[in-house]
Amino acid sequence: MPDISKVVLAYSGGLDTSVILKWLEVEYVCEVVTFTADLGQGEELEPARAKAEAMGVKEIYIDDLREEFVRDFVFPMFRANAIYEGEYLLGTSIARPLIAKRLIEIARETGADAISHGATGKGNDQVRFELGAYALEPDIKVIAPWREWELGGRETLLAYAAEHNIPIEKTRGAKSPFSMDANLLHISFEGGPLENPATEPPSEMWRWSTSPEMAPNEGTYIELGYENGDPVSIDGKVLSPATMLAELNRLGGENGIGRLDLVENRFVGMKSRGAYETPGGTIMLKAHRAIESICLDREVAHLKDELMPRYAKMIYNGFWFSPEREMLQAAIDYSQAKVNGTVTLKLYKGNVIVAGRSSDDTLFDEKIATFEDDGGTYNQADAEGFIKLNALRLRNLARRELR
User: Fold this and answer.
1) I need a labelling partner for 307 at 20 to 30 A (CA). Which of 39, 300, 317, 320 fits?
2) pTM higher than 0.85 for the full model?
3) Among 81, 71, 277, 119, CA closest to 186
4) Is 402 buried (19+), middle (13-18) or exposed (0-12) by CB count in 10 A?
5) What is the pLDDT, as a whole number, of residue 1?
6) Rounded CA gap, 104 and 97, in Å?
7) What residues in the chain have per-residue pLDDT under 50?
């Protein structure tokens, strides 16, 4: 790839991206700018700065993107009730377009010719990073070392690090067998014993949630307040988007909520087994559907449910910045104008139980729905004509068959 003088690298400070940093300098004879995103992964990020400085990096970006992540990416996705293949709450998928967006912004700020990432050639993340980048900067060059180099695994990476005096932190004790990715929405686990889909995830793997068996024996009640389809308060206390999700993670984790063991279909074609913890997201999905149940018109709600799998697939496959996703988002956001009110939830041993919902914008009419005397509000005799009109074609079909 010619004419590369400066590259912006998505940098974690770990083994892979530290090797990539040096490899870019050696193979492309270029300057490297590092970018580390704080998406609420719960790790200290300043060590990444120290490692980058030790390797001679002059331009180092460490950005707190937590509020932007939840406000502009997680919340819009949850307005759609998006889940992939019936279960996955898209915790990794939704973080990648924000990282791609910031990579492009930094490339523009620093005059870089290219961006680079540490995603492998087997996974979805390479697609998500690069589709996002090209959608925002069509002529950007992308360097994906895992698709170019011959460094095949951890031992060869360690050997390369030793050869080039790359500072690698030596961890004490046994290394985790899992590949993990975390942000404010979830933490994912892949690899190790999970590569056999018949093997149960070990109990010590889970980081954010207690097991349902060990969760409190008494339920925890909370009240979520909603405005325009987004959660804005817990028990009457208004919280920022990132603070909201962090608190729901805490409450959900304490009550054993949000564990998932899934075999999914990757965009590149293979099946992959992963385990996920999404306590706050699991609560938000249940609560949002509850408030929508009284605030959305029937046909709007059903249309949203029909569109949701397409929307979720777009996010999973990396098309956040596509015109089709933006078109659907406009329709989804329009539907949320009257999704306001409160939902009372009971969190109990891995379960999110809706205990009540109320709204000034409710479409639920007790006078019509009651099993008691409705005072003539609803004329039950009207149902006869309604049924006969809907049965007309069925009766015609039946008469033909009887002939």
Assistant:
1) 39
2) yes
3) 277
4) exposed
5) 62
6) 11
7) 171-173
Contacts of 136 (CB under 8 A, 6+ apart): 100, 101, 104, 321
Query: Would you state the structure tokens that stand for residue 366, as one six-digit string?
Result: 């007790």
Question: Rounded to the nearest 5°, which phi and psi values hold at 142?
Answer: -120, 130
Cβ within 8 Å of residue 291, ≥6 positions away: 226, 339, 340, 341, 342, 343, 357, 359
CB neighbourhood size of 328 (10 A) = 18
Give catalytic residue positions. 16, 96, 125, 179
Q: What is the pLDDT of residue 176?
A: 67
Q: H-type helices in 272-363, by residue range?
A: 279-295, 298-316, 323-335
* pLDDT tens sequence across 173-185: 456 678 889 999 9
pLDDT digits (tens, 9 = 90+) for 133-171: 999 999 999 999 999 998 877 789 989 999 999 987 654
Fold of 179-296+338-358: Argininosuccinate synthetase, chain A, domain 2 (3.90.1260)
Task: Look up tokens 């987004």; give the residue.
Answer: 230
Domain boundaries, the chain: 6-163, 179-296+338-358
Neighbours of 52 (CB within 10 A): 26
User: Is the alpha carbon torsion for 167, 173, 175, 176 positive or negative?
Assistant: negative
